[in-house]
Each structure stands twice: as structure tokens, then as C-alpha cells.
Design a protein that fits this description.
Elements lengths: L2 E4 L4 H11 L4 E3 L17 H16 L3 E10 L5 E3 L11 H12 L6 E12 L2 E13 L15 E3 L11 H7 L1 H18 L1
Parallel strand pairs: 1-2, 1-3
Antiparallel strand pairs: 3-4, 3-5, 5-6, 6-7
Helix pairs in contact: 1-5, 4-5
């Protein structure tokens, strides 16, 4: 079975991915390989940031690994915050980011948005990219206590509740990260067979 390091310090992301990959491969965190480095995300796209993180870990620790980057893309804000979602307000404070987004959307009738995740996998020195997205809309007020980030204001299409009102199992059926992870798992299963 393939062992992969997930290049993230975000425990929420780790938990989401861990619950999806239990049988597919052995997942290790940065802590497991004694990496406490803060990898600077200097890319201007989600793809670039995911690649920066996976390449850094692969080159420094010589391990098979993957990294992701996720952005919330809001139509009325020209797809912002996008690649800057985690630090939209200037720092990594979930509440401040959400408050600024709601303020910037104030009075705008178009609330359409999508969450998009890109995963960069480096396996035996070669990079593979996987993408997942979920369309939805931004609520006027935050609601729910589950999840993290913009989950309390994002209502996925076809649902009448936010990501923050869903448990992890339900969110993992439809989320952007879950969809990208399913593509990653499917690729690894086929890779193992070849």
C-alpha cells in the first residue's frame, strides 16, 4: 500500500481527507515526518500553491506526497477571494474573513459562488493534478457550528443548509475537497494495479 504525506498543517483538512482514504493508502501528516516548516504560498492560482507545497515536501523529505489549495470564488466579487481565501482579511482569522466577504457582498443580488480545490500529487517524482468544485451561494448570515472557514455562509446547490450545518460525513459526500480526493483515490487505485 502506498504511503503518502499530506502537506498541510490544517487539522480540519487532515480530518476530512483521513475519513475518505482509510482503505486506499497510508496517510501521514507533516507532524509524522517532523516537519514544522511554514511553506509560503506565493502562487497566484490554486494550482500553483498546491504545487509549491507538494514540491517543497517532496524535495526536502524525498517522500511521495500531496498538497491542496482551496478557494472560495464569488461571482459578484470577480471570483474573489479565490486563492487568497484563507487570508482575505489580511490574516488567517476565519471570522474576519467571513465578515469582510459579507460586507463586500452587501447589497449585491448575485450570491452565486463555488468552492474549488486543487490537489497536487507527487508520486515517484512525477506530478499529477486533481480538481473538485461545488457550486452554491453565499448566505446573508452565518449559520451552523460544524466545519471551518467559510462553511457557515456557504450553502451548496441543492441543499437548504450551509456546510456548517452538516456533519463531516454529509459534507464529505459533496464537498469540493471530497470530490478532488475521490479523483486522487481513484488514480492511486489504478496506479497500484499497473
Amino acid at each position: 500500500m502506498i504511503t503518502l504525506v499530506f502537506a498541510t498543517n490544517n487539522l480540519h483538512k487532515l480530518e476530512e481527507i483521513q475519513s475518505k482514504v482509510a482503505e486506499s493508502f497510508i496517510l501521514k501528516s507533516l507532524t509524522d515526518i517532523n516537519c514544522s516548516d511554514d511553506i509560503e504560498e506565493t502562487g497566484i492560482t490554486l494550482e500553483e500553491n498546491a504545487t509549491i507545497k507538494s514540491t517543497y515536501i517532496h524535495q526536502k523529505f524525498n517522500v511521495n506526497c500531496f498538497a491542496d489549495d482551496t478557494g472560495l470564488e464569488v461571482e459578484a466579487l470577480n471570483n474573489k477571494p479565490g486563492v487568497y481565501s484563507a487570508r482575505y482579511s489580511g490574516d488567517r482569522d476565519f471570522k474576519k474573513n467571513m465578515d469582510l466577504l459579507l460586507k463586500n457582498l452587501n447589497g449585491k443580488p448575485n450570491r452565486n459562488a463555488q468552492f474549488r480545490t486543487v490537489i497536487s500529487l507527487i508520486l515517484e517524482g512525477k506530478e499529477y493534478l486533481f480538481e473538485g468544485f461545488v457550486k452554491g451561494k453565499i448566505r446573508e448570515q452565518p449559520i451552523g457550528n460544524e466545519g471551518f472557514g467559510y462553511d457557515p455562509i456557504f450553502e451548496p446547490a441543492g441543499f437548504s443548509k450551509t456546510f456548517a450545518e452538516m456533519g463531516l460525513a454529509e459534507k464529505n459526500q459533496i464537498s469540493h475537497r471530497a470530490l478532488a480526493t475521490e479523483k486522487l483515490i481513484s488514480f492511486l487505485i489504478n496506479y497500484n494495479k499497473s
